[in-house]
């Protein structure tokens, strides 16, 4: 047997051993999760999984699953929540800078609007999520949606809320501002609201209507500030009002 063939055999053997070692480690290392149900059926349930759990394995542990409003479901991890909070902090810094520019340019009303928007965004109940809403009945029939819970995340929180009622205005006062407006529905879809489509737009229950600055009011370097606010708004936790804290996204 040539030395090259022997080398290939050794490499394949080592690779197999590493795969077995990794599989054994996953079997021994539990993956933690929690089910958080808010509203009338408030529940908090801590869970542990071994092996290679998938989304359906978590869904089957939800009590009274058939009664849940699954469009409100959010699946959060602390790592994703930390990234979302960093985006919030970056936007708050940008709004502080914008308020200062307006103040130096003798535009106190706009400076005040920037400060008010900053204060409001600090109080938004944001909850990061891997996906917006879940359709439990389709998971087993659609392997692509029944994805594996990855052990690289330290913890998963499945948060489910009651069905929403009505819509909610956030951002700047629409009566006081001629700024850009957007609808953000519970699925995370963003729809610009314009004079052309406003009359035919059917706002969905649970949607948030955001009013930002007019484009003409934004100085160079700040043209994306409305869109950055709307991107955060996609992660408003269903069932939460302004100033209410979002559900904890950790064990």
UniProtKB/TrEMBL annotation:
Organism domain of life: Bacteria
Asked if the keyword Transferase belongs to this entry, the reply reads no
Pfam families in the record: Caps_syn_GfcC_C, Caps_syn_GfcC_N
Where the record annotates domain Capsule biosynthesis GfcC-like C-terminal, the positions are 190-234
Domain (Capsule biosynthesis GfcC-like N-terminal): residue spans on this chain:
35-154
Keyword Signal assigned to the entry: answer is: yes
Q: Where is the signal peptide?
A: 1-25
Q: Which UniProt keywords apply?
A: Signal
Q: What is this protein called?
A: Uncharacterized protein
Q: Which organism is it from?
A: Idiomarina fontislapidosi
